Structures are given as C-alpha cells and as structure tokens.
Amino acid sequence: MWHSLWSQTLDLTLIVVLLRYMTPILLAALGGLISDIAGVINIGLEGLMLVSAFASIAVGSATGSWELGVAAGVASSVLISYGMGFFSIKMKVDIIIAGFAVNIFGSGFTIFLMSKIYHMTGNYSPSHPVNIPTINLPFLADVPVVGKLLSGHSLMVWLALFAVFFCVLMIYRTPYGVHLRAVGEAPAAAKSLGIPVTRIRYSALIWSGAFAGLAGSYLSMGMTSMFVKDMTAGTGFLALAVVLLGNRNPVGILLGSMLFGLASAVATIVQTTQGSAVPSQFVQMIPYLVTICALVFFEVRKRRRSAGAVTA
Amino acid sequence: MRSFKQVYQEALGILVAVVIALLCGFVVILATSSQPMDALSSLLLDPVSNLFNIGTIVNKAVPLIFTGLALAVVFQSGVFSMGAEGQLYIGGFAGALAGVYLHGLPSWLHLIVIFVCAMAGGALFAAIAGLLKTYANANEIVTTLMLNFVAILTTSYLVNNVFKDPTSGGAARMKYLSPDLLLGRPFAGFPAHAGIFIALAVAAIVYLLLYKTKLGYELRLVGKNGKFARYGGISTKRVILSSIMISGALAGLAGIVEILGIHGTFKDNFSAGLGFDGIIIALLARNHPIGIVVASLFYAYIQVGAQTMQVGSDMPREVAVIIQVMLVLLVSSQAIFHYMKQKFRAKGGERHVA
Amino acid sequence: MTILLEMKGIHKVYPNGTAANRGVDLQIHEGEIHALVGENGAGKSTLMKILFGLEAPTAGTIEYKGAPVAFQSPRDAIKHGLGMVHQHFMLAPSLTVSENIVLGEEPKKGALSLFRDRAKERGEIAELIRTYGLKVDPEARVDTIPVGQKQRVEILKVLYRGARLIILDEPTAVLTPQETDELFVSIKALVAQGYTIIFITHKLREVMEISNRVTVLKAGKTIQTLLTADTNPEEISRLMVGREVLFRVDKRPAEPADVVLSVRDLHAADDKGAPALRGVSLDIRAGEVLGIAGVEGNGQTELVEAITGLRRASSGSIRYMGEELIGKSVARIRAMKIGHVPEDRQTSGASLDSTIAENLILDHYRNREFRRGPFLNAKKIKEFASVMMKIYDVRARDENVMAGSLSGGNLQKVVIARELSKNPKLLVVSQPTRGVDIGAIEFIHAEIIKRRDGGAAVMVVSAELSEVMALSDRIAVVYEGEIVAVLDNTESLTEEEIGRHMLGLGNKTSHREQGAV
C-alpha cells in the first residue's frame, strides 16, 4: 500500500485525486464560511448539496446542457437556503435545528424525486450523461510535471480555486464583506448604524446555498456521472469541520480543504489497494479527530489569553 | 410540576404543528400521485389495519423512545449534545461483545451484564464530549457530531476486521448471540418484541429521575437558569457531565435493545439515523418523557405508513420526510410558541420586567 | 446663544407600568457642554434613548434647530446631525478601527460601487484623526486597543457621520484618570470648533470641571438647570438626592452583640479584571443592620459576591464566626447559614421558568427531611412551599405557579422566603426592594428588622438612600472600591451628608487609619 501511495505521489496522481476530492469540500466550506461570518452558521450543507446534485443531473441530462444543469443545481440550493433563512430568522427556529432539518429534507426529498421521476431507488445514471467539462490545455498537456498539474482538471476545480480568490475579495475588499463581519460579531452595533441586519443574514445564507449548489452539481456531474442516494456521505460535515479549522478566512479554508481532500484521497487509494496496512476507517476518521483537537486547542488558547476572575 | 394551563398551551402548539405538517405531506401527495386517495389511505389507515403493522410500529418506536429520552435528558440540562448516534453504536457494540464473548453465565445474569455494558459504553463515550465541554469549553454540537463519525467508523472497523463472524460474508457482523439472550416476542402472532416493555419502563424511570429526584431537579435547574444554579451552590460542571453520561447510557440502551430485539447481533451500520431521529422526537415531545413515548409511536406510525404507502400506491416512502421536516421546523419555531405565550399571558399574571 | 435642542414635557411609561420619564424638560444651547446628572434610575438613559430614536416617548415634544422632530431610528437621528457615544461600546471586535469608524458609510469605488475605496478611507480617517486630535491607529483591530482608545473610535464614528450634537453617556466610567484628562482635552477642542456636547454622568467633580450648564434629573423629572459657574457640588448633590418620603420603619434600638462577619483589607477584581475592591474592611455584629450606601458600580456587587462565594477575592480575609470564607464553595457558604438576596432576582435570585416550589427548595432539596428514598418527598415540598408562601405573603394561586408570572414584589418575597427559611446568622441583601410595590416593600423591611432583632447580622446594600437610612443601624459608604465613611445612623444624620460621601466628596477617613471599623 505504501508503495502504491508513493508511486502515485510521484506521478502526481495523488495531486489530481486530491484536487478532485477537495473541490466539493472547498466549495461547501466557503459557503459555510460566509454564513458563519454573518452569525448564521449553515449546518445544512449536506442537504443542500444533495438537492443540488439531483437537480443538476436531472436538468442537465434532460436538456443536454451542463450549464443549465449547474444553474438548476445552484438555483435549487439557493431556494432551500432562502427557506432556511425564513424559518431561522423569521420563525425563530434555532439555526442549528434549521440546518438539521435541511439535511433530513435534502436526503429524503432527493430519494423521493428519484423514485417519482426516474423510478429508481438506489441511484440514477442517465443514459446520456452530461458532465461539467474538463479543461485540457493542449499546449501543456504533454509537458512532464506541469502538464499533469495544470491540465485535465474539471472546470469546477478551477472554479473552486477561483472561488477562494472571490471570497477573499468579497469579504475583505467590499463594504458588503465588512457588513457581513459586523452583523456576525456585533449585530447591535450594525443595527445602530443603519445596516440591514436581517437582509444581510438572509444574503449570507443564500451565498452558502449558492456555493453548496456548485459543490453538489460537481458531485453528480463531475466526480461521478450519476446521482446516488445520500451521495454526499458526510462531505457537508467535513466542510463544517473545515470552516471551524479555517480560522474564519478563505485561505485557511483552502488549506483545510486540501488537508481533508488529502485524507479522503488517501482513504480511497488505501481502500482500493489490496493488503493495506492502515484500515480505511481510521484514515476516514482523521478529519473528525483533527477538528476536535483543533477546537480544543483554540479554546484553551482563548482561555489562556483572557483574565477570568469569576468562580465557576 | 407544571400547571395544567401550561401543558395545555404546549400541547396545543404541538397539535397545530402536527396538523400543519400532515397537511403539507397531503399536499405533496395530492400533487404528485396519480392515485392520491389510495396513497393517503395507505399512509394513514394501513399501518393500523392489521396486527403485523401495528407490531412493526411498536418495534420501530422502541429505539426512538430510547434515543428520544437520551436527547430529552440532555436538552433539559441545556446541553446540545447530538451524539446519540455514535453513543448507540458504541453502547450496542459493547453490549454485543458482552453477549457474544462471555460464557458460562445464566441467561438472566448474562442479560444484565449485557445491558450494563451497553449503558456503560454509551455513557463513557458520551463523557468524552462532556469533559471536553466542561473543561475545555469545547462546543458540544461540534464535538458530538464529530465523535459520531469516530464511533461509527471505529465500530465498523472492529466488526469488519477483529470481531467479524467469518460466515457473514459481505455484510459484516459479529457472531449471533445465543437465542435465549434475545428479546422474544411475548405475544403470538404479534411481531412486537419485548423491547417495548423495557422502553416503557425506562421512560417511567427517566420521568421519575427528571421530576422526582435530586439530580433531576439540579439538571433541570441548570438547563433553565445556570446562573441561579450556581448561585445556589450547584456545581454546573458535575451536573452537565452527569446529564451527558445519562444520555449516553440511554443511547447505548437504544443500540443494544435494537440488537437484541431485531438484529440478533451487532451489524455494521445497523442504525439508519436512530440517533438523529431521537433529536426530532425530543423536539416534538418538548423533552418530556411521556411525550417521548407518544411522539415515538406517532413518528413510527408515520414511518410504517410511508412504507405501506409505497407498497400500496405509487408514492415512495420518502414523502414522510416532508412531514418530518415540517414537524421539526414548526415545533421548534420559537416565534409560534412566543406568540401563544403572549396571548395566554396577557390574560394571566402581571409580570414585572425590571 | 441659540437653542439647538429643546425637549419639553417628555414622558415615557413602559408597557409593564414603569414610568422612566415623568415630565422632563431639557434645553441645550449651541456650542455648550451640558451635563446631565442624576442617580441611577433617574431617567437619564431613557431620555437619551428617546432623543436618539431608540425609543418613542409616551408624551412630550422635541425641537431640533427650531423645527419639531421625532426620530424613528438611530439612523434618522444620525442624519440630522446627532451622535451618541454609548456607555457600552458598540464596536465589532475583529474589525479595524478604520472599518468600525466608516461602518455603514464606507467610501466606495469600482463598477457598481461594489468595492471599498481603501485609499480614500485611509485618507479620510487620517484627516479626521488629525483634525480632532484623537489619536488612534486606524489599522489596529479593535479588540487589541485599550478602552480609552476604543472610546476615541466611538467619538470618531460619530464625527465621521457629521454629528454636530454629540451625546456622551457616562464616558469616564471606564477610563483611567489620565484617559479622562485626554478625553476632556478632546471635548474642549471639539466645542471650540462649534460642536455641542451633552455629557451624562454622576461624577460631580467632572461636572464642575468641564460643563457650562448642568441639568439635574431625579425620579424621572427635571429638578433644575443651573449654570455650572454659579453652583457647587453640594448644591447639585442636594438636588440629586433631595428629600423624599422616608420609609420610617418602627424599630427598637439595636442591641449588637458579637462580631459575626469581619472583612479585612479585601481586594477583588471585577469581570473585566479591573480592581473593584481596593482594601475593604468592615465588621458586622449579631443583632445589627449594616447598610452599604453608594452609587452603583463602586464595588458593592463585588463585595457581596466575595462574601457569598460567587467571586474569589484576590487578597484579604473574610472571617465568619471564626472561619475564613475565601476559598470556600458557594454550597458550603450557604450551608453555613448565610443568606443572600441577590440584586438581580430575575437572573441569579430565581429561576423564572421553574415553579415557586422549585425555587423555594434550592437549599433544602439535599436535606434528608425532604427526601423519601431516592426521590424527593413531593408531599413535604408542597407543605413547605405552602407554609412559606403563607408566612411571607406570596400572592399566587399555588406553589406550582411559574415564578416568571409573579410580580416583582411577589417574586422578591419568594427569594426572601427561601433565604430566611434557613434561619441565617448572616443575611446579605442587595437592592431588596428594587421594582417592588409599596406593600411588599413594607413587608420586606419588617422581615429584615425582625431578623435583626432575632440576633442575625444583616448587611443591606442599596442604591436607594432612603431605604438604607430606614433600615440601618450603621451605614458604611462605598466609593471607588473603598469604604470612605462609616456613620452611625442617628437622628441627626442627613441624606446630604451621606450623599456627599457617596459622590466622593466627604472627608475620606483613610481605611488605614480606621482600624477596627
């Protein structure tokens, strides 16, 4: 197994696989980041991705156009997150419970639709699948190292990397980004200065829906060409873990996503290689253990900083 | 301990939520089914139309009662542990281990040991998140969600590699427990297993614990007003830790009763989200043990109904998800309950707001 | 001298019946520094909230620059040129100083004005800092700068939005003396440039130092407006504190016996880590009531918390019946027959979502007599609760009523019932009758005296001077974390005298010279 792993690292297959696994995590995590910054953390990323994955492949294969598929995925995810906003902001449902409800909904409703529309129960593979295109750079493709690194990735991978840049711009270079941060940290202050707190919270959730939508469409039209029930398999929770680790900034999210992407990639390789020394379950566990350790680490560091004189 | 009026208020709110949620489900059925009336009757009537179905409802309600109780206990103390799923895996695993690998004990004693192991397993696993919260101030929502995965993956590994029954082939499981340890069916022709009695008994115990004992008093007080509890000299750390461990023990019971009643041994991935269903049950029942029993039966009824509907019409059973989601959202809507509280309080006692 | 702002006959009654403003008149001249003073609860904050659009008055008019106005929101008020620097800062911690200042009004650039024009922002902020001499580092994160600078950020915020009338709400409450001096320099500079300042405070030295005129509020009404130059702190404090109907409690003269509680050189920090108690020493004897007078925020809260175990003192000693209390757990202290009626009954004193009975048994639920096997003895609890409710005149249907639906007075009686039910040897009460109706006040006062006559040592902390005078045998005055005076509550003791000490004006008897207090 180690030999296989090493050889794949050497011929950069590992990097390719890593980028593939990292993409949905990264996109979902960026969405989670925006909602967390505004104080309305979206834990319903799993459900949103499932809805989007289904909508994308449904519309994509029906119209033959991947663009429409992706658009449908994003639109459906945005719609659900708007609903989530309504319930949590207007009806005062705890944001965690609302996210939890979105997860249940996403899982069940997609299975329902798959059964109703395609009469399939476990998975749906369209006869004429349409995929998000891969970007082949013809002049580079044959260049040794660089070729493998830069060419042949799905468009969504590039989009995800671009999204990091986009988020940095939006969060730090626009007034909207400053307002997001203010609403999340000091809503009373923001309100006293006339910033529309409710509107900003809704918009943050919608952004998270949009990013989760992109992630979802990649799952069914990029990583695979099918929809499988519950195909997110915890990716949404990994994304949440990345949000917590990423220290509230997009570059940290990128690093965290790469780390978890790496863990997922290694887990896959390990699972597909015979006679693996390290069981796949333990590799899969790494992101979750890392998150717990990081959380504790941050809390302990926070406590060490403040004075704290009151008895418990 | 609450006045009739308050219970009435809450029950009314929940009833309204249930009705609206059901209506949402009906709307979806009417819109997408070519035989809506068949679908509706299969959903609502078939589950109670024969003993087999009723028995299935009872069986499905059993683990829900346990996980619902687990969440109710922890929610009442103000802790948002979402770790019932992981705890039931660990507890179930521990109990199954005791069942399969201990020999030479008379059945009744063996069963007791199995239950104790299951509860201990769940409690100790829950204690991890509890300690992280009380001593490192780590958010329990995150830690318990993460630990769920750790628990599921760990037990999966163990049952696939260390404790696997060689005859189990692709679907990994431990060796089957000896039949006299399993929870049998006490009524001939009625498929409900004895687990329901255990569940009801445990619900009664939890009720007594929460409302009639010292610890229950402390637990609820910490959940209602931590400052007041601290002012009174109650150690909130101790109470939170106890609460989360009790919750873990209950979840462990959910696991082992499900194993003893339905599966016969620990099977890889045997729980399809029972821990998370428990969250819904606790929310529906507003954390009250009696309500948990009712909510579990109702939820199981919907689940079985969805299944019979799938069999008896062109509706897949996932339609029930619509109802479940609307239930969760409506029941948790503080706005609705606040609104009702305002209306009722306007009549009642004057309240000073300093 | 133009009148910039005129508030006439402002009334504000809240839905629960509290009347915070009962006819306030305020007239502000352009270019002046106008101090607004009054005790806690006099109505200053409410008045400013109304002015700033955070609340609507129940009656009264406001004229600004000669035209009638009624601001619907802070944004509205800001647009008209008002600015408020709140007592509790409204800043976003992880944003920079600059970002906080321009929050909501960021300079924009680019297509569709989507981007921040950071260069312009930097320029404008630098200009602002230079013009007003309020030095801060614009690129520093707000959670890294000290309090004095945070306040400057708040002031800059207000100036950036073009405020001409600036309201400062208790600005020096959180400042060191040096920071206070710097603030005053800035204020004077602003006024020299034509700004107008309303300065809310209860520190009379500052009023004298910086204001042109001062308006005194008391119990929701305007008492008088004076020219600072024509008055002095004594007169102002007399107007602030004034003569009120004294609740004369019939009581026998005290017969104090042995010392029950002995506090020596107690030091403790507040929640933010700043020193709250700076060497407090006092004694309380059995059979006497020691009143603690003082404006809120001078260390009384921390003193009570230190004695009852809710806050750990950093040094000094608290001896109760010979035992040292510092370091003991709250449960232990409560079990030593120390009763505590806390100042915030709704958060610490009671659990509003629990029943009266559940609130009453807080100390007793551990006792054997309230248990039956592993369970709580429901019958005994019910009996106990009924008896308590009768003795302490708690008016509610039964013991299962939720504490949250009780009136203030009734809830306080529940708290008192609980604390007195264990027959404490030391009773510490804080703000016992705040928000309580007259009938309940009489009852509660009578109970306190009854206990004192029964041999308990009682400490009463109250911001209500008349209450302190009605109940106490001796009165200790707290100011800035120290006991500045201990007075025998004789017939000749006047409120003015106590008031002077409360405001830090009296002859401070150094605690080092006091010895046994």
Task: Describe the fold and architecture.
The complex is a heterotrimer of chains A (312), B (354) and C (517). Chain A is mostly helical and 312 residues long. Chain A has helices spanning 2-10, 13-37, 45-63, 66-90, 95-118, 144-150, 155-173, 175-185, 187-192, 197-223, 235-245, 250-272, 280-305; strands at 123-124, 134-135, 153-154, 227-228. In chain A, the strands form two sheets. Chain A has a two-stranded antiparallel ribbon. Chain A has a two-stranded antiparallel sheet with strand order 2-3. Chain B is mainly α and 354 residues long. Mean pLDDT of chain B is 87; it is low at 347-354. Helices cover 32% and strands 26% of the residues of chain C. Chain C contains 18 helices and 24 strands. A six-stranded mixed β-sheet of chain C has the order 6-9-10-3-11-12, sandwiched between helices. In chain C, strands 18-21-22-15-23-24 form a six-stranded mixed β-sheet, sandwiched between helices. In chain C, strands 2-1-4-5 form a four-stranded antiparallel β-sheet, covered by helices on one side. Residues 510-517 of chain C have low confidence and may be disordered. At the B-C interface, helix 8 and helix 9 of B face helix 10, helix 11, strand 20 and helix 14 of C.
What is the topological layout?
The complex is a heterotrimer of chains A (312), B (354) and C (517).
Chain A (H helix, E strand, L loop, with lengths): L1 H9 L2 H25 L7 H19 L2 H25 L4 H24 L4 E2 L9 E2 L8 H7 L2 E2 H19 L1 H11 L1 H6 L4 H27 L3 E2 L6 H11 L4 H23 L7 H26 L7
Antiparallel strand pairs in A: 1-4, 2-3
Chain B lengths: L3 H29 L3 H9 L6 H26 L7 H18 L5 H30 L3 H23 L32 H18 L1 H11 L1 H6 L4 H28 L10 H11 L4 H24 L6 H13 L2 H12 L9
Chain C lengths: L2 E11 L5 E11 L3 E5 L6 H8 L7 E6 L2 E2 L5 H6 L2 E4 L11 H5 L6 E2 L5 E2 L1 H15 L14 H14 L4 E5 L7 H16 L3 E6 L2 H7 L2 E6 L2 E7 L5 H9 L17 E11 L5 E11 L3 E5 L6 H9 L6 E6 L2 E2 L5 H6 L2 E4 L3 H5 L6 H5 L10 E2 L2 E2 L1 H14 L16 H13 L5 E5 L7 H16 L3 E6 L2 H7 L2 E6 L2 E7 L6 H8 L8 H4 L3
Parallel strand pairs in C: 3-10, 3-11, 6-9, 9-10, 15-22, 15-23, 18-21, 21-22
Antiparallel strand pairs in C: 1-2, 1-4, 4-5, 7-8, 11-12, 13-14, 13-16, 16-17, 19-20, 23-24
Helix pairs in contact in C: 8-17, 14-15
